[in-house]
Structures are given as structure tokens and as C-alpha cells.
Design a protein that fits this description.
Blueprint lengths: L1 H20 L19 E3 L10 E7 L5 H9 L5 E3 L3 H9 L3 E16 L4 H4 L1 H9 L3 H8 L6 E3 L17 H11 L3 H9 L4 E4 L2 E4 L2 E2 L1 E7 L3 H15 L4 E7 L1 H9 L8 E7 L5 H9 L11 H12 L3 H18 L2 E14 L3 E2 L1 E3 L2 E2 L4 E2 L4 E2 L5 E7 L17 H10 L4 E3 L7 E3 L2 E13 L5 E12 L13 H10 L8 E4 L2 E4 H6 L14 E8 L2 E6 L4 H9 L6 H4 L4 H5 L12 E7 L4 E6 L12 E4 L4 E7 L1 E6 L4 E6 L4 E9 L9 E2 L2 E2 L1 E3 L1 E4 L2 E7 L6 E13 L2 E13 L6 E2 L16 E2 L14 E2 L1
Parallel strand pairs: 1-14, 2-18, 4-15, 9-10, 9-11, 29-40
Antiparallel strand pairs: 2-28, 3-12, 4-11, 4-12, 5-12, 6-7, 7-8, 11-43, 13-17, 14-16, 19-20, 21-22, 22-26, 23-24, 25-26, 27-28, 30-38, 31-32, 33-36, 33-39, 34-35, 37-38, 39-40, 41-42
Length: about 775
């Protein structure tokens, strides 16, 4: 591990020099869909995977209840809200300014228990609580007649087609026999717990009256209903359960922090589960910090085997067995499988995307834009105040609300297609391939048997917003900084010595990432834009997760600070590289602002389209603005770069031409822009040698900062003469066991969506 880091330190030095001499080599393969760009809501199959399109997104946590949030939505004070009341849903359907809808959600709600407490750790206690729950009441009363979800006790929901083959019939039989709604059985199971006595109808534990607490997030109406229902059901057998409101952040901290005895019963949910049950179940149920301290070696072994299974059929066998043991052991009591129920404000906005099946929300909103314009406006996305994240920190944050922000500012290697979640889309990765390894001893001494190596090639035009290139070094750093393989021990990053065993034992590590991909045994950066990931496995799910299971974080930011220090930061150094950059926290951390990153490699150049008469000269203006993290304001501050050299290239778009550099007289078309001062550069593009068609403009600015090379890209497009209406496709060849969506290029720009990297998140 240490020797690997030393080698990569040398590679990092070479990155800056290498980036100066490479061909511009843009590998965006961006997708465009022909449409009007002004439809208020479109469907998931009309998606185009480029971004950003809106000027800024403001995430607010200042509204205390969902009722007040819906009222703000009606008034146009916010643009997105989650709906938790059937009456609000029905009102929204009648309001022409709103669009409300539901989607089947890969998400479940649960009761979690403190396994550091001998009482709540006893399986008979959890059986007793399960015996109190009538799931028809949960569907009707708590989930508003099924609007918010279906009350069900099962760990896998047959209503999601991906999960049906993994479901154990024995799990249902076990539930019906021991855990189903039956107040007499609840009494029986409580009486089986050591030190619990039942005298004259009263309950005692260790000789004292038994009184339990149920913590739930304030402002969450369904959770409050669940708390009241559980309190009433417990009272029917003279058991005292007291509901206690708390913030979501405090609730999650108690549920995930050893020794897991700071609560009795609590509730939250998991979202972003994705299509691979063997993967997300292994990620959740083999980690004690995810389950209030629960640990079971049989379940761990089965789910580990499932995640490493070479075939889907074999994975199904292991998961079905694990499904039965989970129902038997009840690390959680599943309360509901959820629907996404959301409302959006229509006036002034275009191209919300409705999702029929979703990992989290009923609409994709991150790439909505003002009607008739792009990269303008501020979209206000609201979550109730109890959902406010403890921090915005890539190393420590665990909630979906924090990652709504983090997912905007950090890039992923790939994303997935909404119509088929097992199909991958290139983002930072422009191509990849998987090669099977029957048997091989790696340089670190590990032996791979029936494993594989995943070779990932990165685009050459991705940068962090201060001009540092995004490279394979960042990918490698991310994997080991988060310790995604869960190898414990120590590691060294450019002189920073990290003891991961101590971090884990002290609860100072991201448990969402740690150990989530234990089959990764080694990585090798073979060039600044290629990394090989060696895996002691070869299943399709392993390949998927190795590509899609994490965002990529900047090594130069975090490789000199002890992770334990980063873990404590309210807002980390958020040097951005995704479609948006972090612009600040406001109103006592109740508002977080991100703004469009115009340097993002997957931006749609056609949103800048300008018509040019053939033979005329078009002047392209390049504003070279880098962003540097400012600890005093906790935001990225703009810096105009006045000492750059700007190279301007053209790419073919459409008209049957491949997506590659334009050549004139056998040489790449290139203009060096004039430096007009204050970070403004202009390039005169003579179109006399260009045939009619649409061209992408790629401006690569290169400069020196503190002895190191920096670069930023800006983009534009011109239509020379008549604009063709045909569509051409630029294909990314990606030999793989996974389906890959070839992201094509058409000449009419329209709607986009930023598909989130698949990461399990608590809600």
C-alpha cells in the first residue's frame, strides 16, 4: 500500500507536464434530444445526459413542516417539495401551477434498534414490536391509503421487478408464524427476554418499570404518525413507548455511532438502492454501523458470496438464503416500501423529467432550466428543516440531503440510464473494459484466483475548477482514501500516514463507503488518464459498482490532511469538478448554493449555439475564470486568469461527420486567442474554409500557477449556413459484461438530466 502511494506521487508530478502536450482530445460523447426546450415536463425516455443547464440551485432547509413547504410551493416561493399528505397531493393535482406525481421508489422505511442495549438487542424484543404492527393500518393511515408507500414487513419488495428473483418464500412463512400482527404473541415474546418481568399487567426490566423511547425526525409527518401508532399499539399491552422528536442529523448520529446504546428504537429509510439486490444488501447488512450495531456472521458470509458470485443465478441463490435469515434475525423491522411523491412549480421553468421508477425522487430537477434560456435562474429545492445535514463533507456525510449538494459538485466515472439502470453512461470515464484473470500474483503479493482487472480510460478535458486536471490519480486516491475495499491497516498519501483501523474503531470513517467493495485488492495508475482496478471477483455487479459506486474526489485537496480532521469539518474544502461548483452556505447553514460550472466536460455546447454566415468571421469570447477555495467564506471564489494561453479548436457536430477535430488542409483547425486582459480572451474563427454545418468550439486555457501547469476548458458552438437536421452518433467502445449506452450527438439541443451516481443514502 505504501509503495503504491509513492509511485503515484511521482505520476502526479508528470500529470501537469503531460497535460500541456496532449491533443485536446475531447471525449464528451454528449447526448442531445430533439425537442422544443420549453416543455414543462417530459418523460424519462426523452433524457439527454449533459449538464448543467440552470444557473444555480439553492438547497434550503428553512421550512419546518411539509405542510408549510407545500404552501410555499403553491406560492412559488420554492420550486420543489416532497409531499407527505394526501390532501396536499389532491390539491396539487388541481393547481395548474403545480405538477404532482408519484413514482415507485427503490427505497424502504424501517425501525432500527440499539444493539448495544441487551434489551433491544434481544430478537424476542424485535419480534414483540413486529407483533404490534398491522401493516394494513400502516398502508392506510400512515402512508395515506398507499400514496406514500405500501406497508410490508419484507426485506425485498416484489413490486420492484429487479428484486423478484431474490425473494425467499420461506421469509414470508417465517413472518406469518412468528412476527405477524398478534398482540398475544407480542406479550409472549416480551416475556421471553431475560430480566423482563410481567407483573399484574405491568412491565419491568431489571426490576424497574420498563419505559422505552422511539426517536423520529421532527417535521416528518409519516414518521410522527408511525410514532403515535407504535405508542398506541404498545399501550394496548401496557407497554410504555414514548415518542421523542429530534433532528435527522442527531438521529443518524445516534444510530450509527458505537456503542449503539444512545437510543432504544428509531426510524429512517434507505434510498438509491439500485437494481442489484446482492450489492446493496451486502453494503447495508454487513456493516454494524448501518444497523445499530447488528452483526451476524451467517448473513455476512451469504451476502459476501452473493456480491462475489460469478453469475446472476448464483447470486440469487445466496440472496434468497440471506433474505430468510434477515427475516428471522430482524436487524431492522421493515415498515414500508416507499413511493416518491413530489411536487414541482411550473411557471417559468422547462424540462422537468418525470421518472416512472426512481431511486429517490419522482422528478429529475437538477437540470431544469428557465423557459427559453439556459444557464440562468436560481432553482429553489426545499427539504424540511429536520432534514438539514450535519455537514457537507465527502468523507463524513451520509444522508441523501447532503449528497444532493455533493452530487452536484463532484463527478463520477459513469452514471446509469434511467430507462435501464444496469446500462452505464460514460462521464469521467470515456471507455473501460473487463479482462478475466484465472490466476495471478499481484505486485503487492495478493493472489487473484478467478478474478478480473477493470481498465478505465478517462477523458482528457475534465478539470477541478481551479484548473488542476482530473486524473487517474484522483480515482486511485478516492478508492483508498475512503478505503472502499475495507482493508483496514495503514496507507500513505504523499507523506500523510493514515491508520484506517484506528479511524474505523473511533467511528471516524465514512461507513457508506468503507468496505463497500471488498473484492478490490489492488489498483495501478498506468498513465495520468488510465487506471487498472484489480478485483478478486468478476461478476457484473462488481464491475458496475467499481465504476459507479463512488464520486471522485480531488487528491490535491485531501491528501495532506488526516481524515479524522476532515471528518469533523462542518463544510470541507469543496473544490469542485462536477456540473456545479459550491458557492456558499447561508442562513446559519439552512441554505446551500451551487452555481453552474461552465468548465464541466459534459456540458452541452449547443446551448451556446450561434448562427454564422458562411465565409464570415465569428469572434469567440473566452472568459477564463478559475475558482479557489476560501476558508474564510467556505466557498469557491472566482479568480480571473490573465496569464493564460488559450487554444481554440473546432469539433464536428452532426452532418454525418465523426466527432473529432476539424482539419483544414490536413491539419487540425486551431486558433490562439488574443489576451484582452482581466481573464477575457477572443479568438477570430474564419469560416471560409468550413463547409456548412454545426461545430463545437473547444477553448483550452493553459497557464502556470505556483510552478505548476493549470488548464480549463470552455465550450461553444456555431452553425455555419443551413443547419442540418440529421443525427449522428459518436460511439464509445466499451467491452464489458454490462450494457453500455452509446451517448449520441444530434444537432438540436434540448433537455438534459444529471443521473446521480448510485450510492446508498439514509433518509
Amino acid at each position: 500500500m505504501q509503495s503504491k502511494s509513492k509511485v503515484l506521487s511521482v505520476l502526479l508530478v508528470g500529470i501537469m507536464l503531460f497535460s500541456m502536450i496532449i491533443d485536446v482530445g475531447i471525449s464528451t460523447n454528449a447526448a442531445y434530444v430533439s425537442a422544443t426546450a420549453n416543455e414543462p415536463v417530459i418523460n424519462w425516455y426523452q433524457v439527454s445526459y449533459t449538464c448543467p443547464w440552470v444557473g444555480s440551485i439553492e438547497y434550503i432547509f428553512s421550512i419546518s413542516t411539509h405542510t408549510a413547504e407545500f404552501s410555499a410551493l403553491q406560492k412559488g416561493q420554492i420550486d420543489f417539495a416532497t409531499i407527505t399528505h394526501q390532501s396536499d397531493f389532491e390539491t396539487g393535482q388541481k393547481d395548474s401551477n403545480l405538477w404532482v406525481n408519484t413514482s415507485v421508489q427503490e427505497s424502504f422505511g424501517l425501525l432500527a434498534f440499539a444493539f448495544g442495549n441487551p434489551l433491544t438487542a434481544n430478537v424476542n424484543f424485535r419480534y414483540a414490536i413486529s407483533n404490534l404492527l398491522n401493516y394494513q393500518v400502516i398502508t392506510d393511515k400512515i402512508n395515506d391509503d398507499g400514496l406514500l408507500g405500501i406497508g410490508t414487513p419484507y426485506y425485498l419488495f416484489p413490486g420492484i421487478p429487479f428484486y423478484k428473483p431474490f425473494i425467499s418464500e420461506n421469509a414470508s412463512l417465517w413472518y406469518q408464524k412468528y412476527e405477524s400482527y398478534n398482540l398475544s404473541m407480542a406479550v409472549y415474546h416480551l416475556e421471553q427476554i431475560p430480566n423482563v418481568t410481567h407483573v399484574n399487567g405491568q412491565w419491568y426490566y431489571q426490576g424497574k418499570p420498563l419505559k422505552l423511547t422511539f426517536t423520529y425526525p421532527s417535521g416528518d409527518t409519516p414518521a410522527e404518525k408511525l410514532a403515535t401508532y407504535l405508542q398506541d399499539q404498545a399501550a394496548s399491552i401496557n407497554l410504555t413507548i414514548v415518542p421523542v422528536q429530534t433532528t435527522f442529523a442527531q438521529l443518524i448520529e445516534a444510530a450509527t455511532t458505537p456503542p449503539y446504546n444512545a437510543f432504544n428504537i428509531t426510524t429512517f429509510g434507505w434510498v438509491n438502492l439500485g437494481p442489484f439486490a446482492e450489492s446493496w444488501m451486502q453494503g447495508i447488512y454487513t456493516s454494524p454501523s448501518n444497523t445499530g450495531g447488528f452483526s451476524n456472521s451467517t448473513i455476512d458470509t451469504l451476502l459476501d458470496k452473493a456480491s462475489l458470485a460469478p453469475s446472476l443465478t448464483q447470486a440469487e441463490v445466496y440472496v434468497r438464503e440471506a433474505d430468510f435469515y434477515l427475516q428471522q434475525q430482524l436487524p431492522y423491522i421493515i415498515t414500508s416500501w416507499s413511493n416518491a411523491v413530489d411536487g414541482i412549480y411550473l411557471p417559468g421553468w422547462a424540462d422537468y423529467i418525470y421518472l416512472n421508477v426512481t431511486s429517490e425522487y419522482a422528478y429529475s430537477i437538477i437540470n431544469v432550466h428557465p423557459r427559453g434560456s439556459f444557464l440562468n435562474g436560481t432553482f429553489i429545492y426545499s427539504s424540511v428543516s429536520s432534514s438539514a445535514p450535519r455537514h457537507i463533507n465527502p468523507y463524513a456525510s451520509a444522508s441523501v440531503y447532503a449528497f444532493n449538494v455533493l452530487g452536484d459538485i463532484y463527478p463520477g466515472l459513469v452514471s446509469y440510464e434511467y430507462a435501464n439502470q444496469t446500462a452505464l453512461l460514460p462521464l469521467l470515464a470515456k471507455s473501460w473494459n473487463l479482462q478475466l484473470i484465472p490466476k495471478e500474483t499481484l505486485p503487492n503479493g495478493d493472489l487473484i484466483v478467478n478474478g478480473s482487472v477493470l481498465t478505465v480510460n478517462l477523458v482528457h478535458n475534465a478539470t477541478w475548477d481551479n484548473g488542476v486536471p482530473v486524473t487517474a490519480y484522483d480515482v486511485n486516491f478516492t478508492i483508498w482514501w475512503l478505503d472502499i475495499p475495507g482493508m483496514m491497516g495503514t496507507n500513505t498519501f504523499d507523506g500523510l500516514h493514515v491508520n484506517y483501523t484506528a479511524l474505523y474503531n473511533n467511528g471516524e470513517i465514512s461507513t457508506d463507503y468503507f468496505g463497500s467493495q471488498p473484492y478490490i485488492v489492488w489498483t495501478q495508475v498506468t498513465s495520468p488518464y488510465q487506471i487498472k482496478i484489480y478485483m478478486n471477483a468478476s461478476s457484473y455487479a462488481d464491475e458496475f459498482d467499481a465504476l459507479d459506486g463512488y464520486y471522485v474526489y480531488p487528491a490535491f485537496v485531501f491528501n495532506t490532511t488526516n481524515p479524522a480532521t476532515v471528518y469533523t469539518e462542518k463544510i470541507a474544502d469543496l473544490q469542485s469538478g462536477g456540473p456545479y461548483y459550491f458557492a456558499g452556505a447561508f442562513n446559519n447553514y439552512q441554505e446551500y448554493l451551487v452555481k453552474a460550472n461552465l468548465h464541466y466536460a459534459r456540458i452541452d455546447p449547443l446551448i451556446f449555439l450561434q448562427n454564422v454566415t458562411p465565409g464570415k468571421t465569428y469572434t469567440f469570447t473566452d472568459n477564463v475564470t478559475a475558482y479557489v477555495w476560501d476558508n474564510s467564506t467556505l466557498s469557491n471564489m472566482p479568480v480571473q486568469i490573465s496569464n493564460a494561453t488559450v487554444y481554440v479548436y473546432l469539433k464536428y457536430l452532426g452532418d454525418g461527420m465523426p466527432y473529432e477535430n476539424v482539419t483544414v488542409n490536413g491539419k487540425p483547425f486551431m486558433v490562439i486567442a488574443k489576451n484582452d486582459g482581466n481573464g477575457i480572451y477572443t479568438a477570430n474563427i474564419n469560416t471560409s474554409s468550413l463547409k456548412p454545418g454545426v461545430y463545437e468550439i473547444v477553448a483550452k486555457a493553459v497557464w502556470n500557477a505556483g510552478g505548476a501547469s493549470r488548464e480549463l476548458f470552455n465550450f461553444g458552438s456555431i452553425a455555419v449556413g443551413a443547419v442540418p437536421t440529421t443525427t449522428t452518433t459518436s460511439t464509445t467502445t466499451t467491452p464489458s459484461s454490462l450494457p453500455v449506452v452509446d451517448i449520441g450527438i444530434a444537432v438540436v439541443a434540448i433537455v438534459i438530466i444529471a443521473a446521480a451516481v448510485v450510492l446508498l443514502r439514509r433518509r
